[in-house]
Amino acid sequence: MGRGRLRSLISGVWRSIAVWAASTATMLVLAGILPDFRLQSTGGDSATRIAATAAAGAGVFGLLSSLVWPLLVRLLLLVPALVLGLLVFFLNGSLLLLALRLSPSGHGEAAPETAVVVAAVMSAVASATGAALAVRDDDPYRRRLSRLGDRRHARSGQAGQVTPGALFVQLDGVGHDVLRAAVDKGLMPTVASWLAPSEDRGPTHRLTAWRTDWSSQTGASQLGILHGSNHDVPAFRWYEKESREVMVCNRPSSAAELQRRAIERTGDGGLLTVDGASRGNLFSGGADQLALVLSVAARRGRDNRSRVGYFAYFSDPANAVRTALSFVADVGREMVQSTRARLVGQRPRVGRGGLYPFVRAFATVVERDVVVAAVIGDMLAGRSAVYADLVAYDEVAHHSGPHSRDAEKVLQKLDRSLAVLAQVAEHAPRPYRIVVLSDHGQSPGETFQARYGLSLGNLVRAGCGLPVPRGVEGTHSGAEARAAVRAALRRPVEENGEGHPAAHRRSEPVVLASGNLGLVSFPDVPHRMSREEIDRRHPALLSTLANHPGVGFLLVRSEEHGGVVLGAHGAEIPVDRLADGTGPLAAFGPGAAAAVRRTHSFPHTADIMVNSWHDPATGEVLAFEEQIGSHGGLGGAQGRPFLLWPLALSAPAGDGAELVGAERLHRVFRRWLRECDGPQVPLTAHEDADERAA
User: Fold this and answer.
1) 630 touches 443 (CB < 8 A)
2) Where do the H-state alpha helices sit in 547-684?
């Protein structure tokens, strides 16, 4: 055994003894202050014997945590993450009760709820002690990482050639302007340190904005970034007539199908095909190492590798307890924040009750902890390319607003996660180029229903001459919409208030919302309906929608022009004559015309595409779902995410050129992977020609 390994072994033994001692002391202290927790010795109740009982109990608890806990977590891999988080306390308390029964020096007694508290505190103390000693013991740690890197390079035939790896961290929903404002306010010191020069070096990174497609949402952006094609993804959710199914980007079966279509279209597996890892994403990118990847979550049995990320993280009881405690704290934090917003009369505001506090806590705590831990493991293992998505900001901004105090606190925590990853990169067996990006931004604004007193679905029903619920009678939606609603109110409505007479069921439209983008489809017509067909069937529908003050513009197919964009007061422009800054698209900024034309070409574009009103002065839009920070359509910051890249890599675009579309980012990232000189998938001839032209 070499001297370095001997030192590491001795260090590990001392660290184990220190953790055992800390756990013993914690058990003694808790036995002294908790009335329902007692330690008893078989040979009497002297202080020495009680201490021996505590030491034996702490030792048995530690062994059970190391040996039994991983088996329990593996058995619970199929349990939903939210349930697993809540089971952590119960399982840990049960292990403590078992440890007290098995202790050779005596036994202890504890009420079940007290055992949960004792086990949680002991796990937290053990975790903190182990972490503190690991930091102090830096030399053996560095040597172990170095040996790990040497073994990996030796296996790949690259011994002695340490090439950089690439880490892509996606901060979901963080717009370019939001990130810049957070840096200026001092909320994100890690990002600020990368952008600003210091005494001994210049800036290490550069920040730029890029522009999304019309469908400014994670499904379209991440599919384009990871798999090189987001063709035929018109929205976050849409109706496909041939299968009579609604596709939803964050539904596992839909994500798997979208990934299959992208691979079939591009002819390769994705950005991460060779030695890659995908963490917390909708799609795999072709990676073999997966954690919390939705496109493989629908698989059953051993083939579902995504859930292994849960096991890798929760197999350590200290991780499980720490995350569970943070989960409960964040649920309470959300309840306090939502109550405060309601008491002060915050506007705009949406409901934040029901299961939302738990959904938010999963995004801000569980997903973050599991993904960051998985990425740390990837970096220490020296993987060539890692892509990870942190969704916390996007979830909170939807309900609290993209510029809210709640969202700013999440940005601070995300910055701390970036700091941790940067520190780990310093100890990894290979250097890492850390690229940080977002997939879209968010645009503020109240909901369509809050402003006008009716939903987009009921407005469409009124325009189709179908009955609507009595509750929308007081809508303030403009003269034409009010007339359509008044006419609809004179028709009979079913008792459930939904207004679905059996005679109309076959012809009723399917109305879906993706942020401030609405999609209207007529399922009984097998093809995409034209404007002329819609006018013959529902003469008032298109004018009712186009003239509504909450609607910015419509896109429909046209028998005469191929496609046409409709606006208020009879405005209409054929798709092939669209230009930015004119007509119905005047308020939507540069790139809007090209984005609309591209979506018009998709096979599954809806019969009617409805983009909400947008105020370019304030950046506000009107979401067709219950969100006060939304994305999915055109208008405002939602279409302007950011890209933060290290100066060691080439510029993503030429001087003054704008990055447009997620597919373009895919080509840039593949170029960067080649610059890292790793064993990456080469560009196709078509992609290489496009890149040279760009």
Assistant:
1) yes
2) 592-600, 662-675
Q: Could you say which DSSP state residue 228 is in?
A: S
Q: For residue 316, which of 140, 59, 62, 26 has the smallest C-alpha distance?
A: 62
Task: Say how far apart CA 389 and CA 437 lie, in whole Å.
Answer: 9
Q: CA-to-CA distance for 192 and 210, rounded, in angstroms?
A: 20
Q: How far apart are CA 221 and CA 670, in angstroms?
A: 16
**What number of CA atoms fall less than 13 Å from residue 482's CA on the CB side?**
8
* CA 531 to chain CA centroid, nearest Å: 37
SS3 385: strand
What mean pLDDT do residues 316-334 have?
A: 80
CB 403 within 8 A of CB 307: no
CB proximity list for 336: less than 8 A, separation 6 or greater: none
Task: Specify the 3-state DSSP secondary structure of 612.
Answer: strand
CA distances from residue 444 to 41, 178, 404, 609 in whole angstroms, order as listed: 64, 12, 10, 21
CA distance 633 to 631: 6
Q: How many Cβ atoms sit within 10 Å of the Cβ of residue 607?
A: 24
Kindly report which listed range (37-51, 286-300, 508-522, 591-605) carries the lowest average pLDDT score: 37-51
Quote the strand ranges of 378-484, DSSP E.
Answer: 385-390, 432-437, 443-444
At residue 552, what are phi and psi to the nearest 5 degrees?
-85, -50
Supply 437's token pair: 């990006």
181-215 tens-digit pLDDT: 999 999 999 999 999 987 778 899 999 999 999 99
Q: Give the global pTM.
A: 0.81
Nearby residues of 161 by Cβ (< 8 Å), 6 or more positions away: 153
Contacting residues for 689 by C-beta, under 8 A, at least 6 apart: none
Contact indicator for 541, 463 with CB cutoff of 8 Å: yes
Task: Name the strand (E) or helix (H) holding 144.
Answer: helix 138-155
Tell how far CA 499 is from the center of its chain.
Answer: 36
- Residue pointed to by tokens 């901060």: 171
Q: In this structure, what DSSP letter does residue 641 have?
A: B
The count of other CB atoms within 10 Å of the CB of residue 440 is: 28
Beta strands in 445-575 (DSSP E): 510-514, 517-521, 551-558, 562-566, 572-574
Amino acid at 404: S
Sheet containing strand 562-566, edge to edge, reads 510-514, 517-521, 608-612, 551-558, 562-566, 572-574
Q: Can you give the length of the chain in residues? A: 694
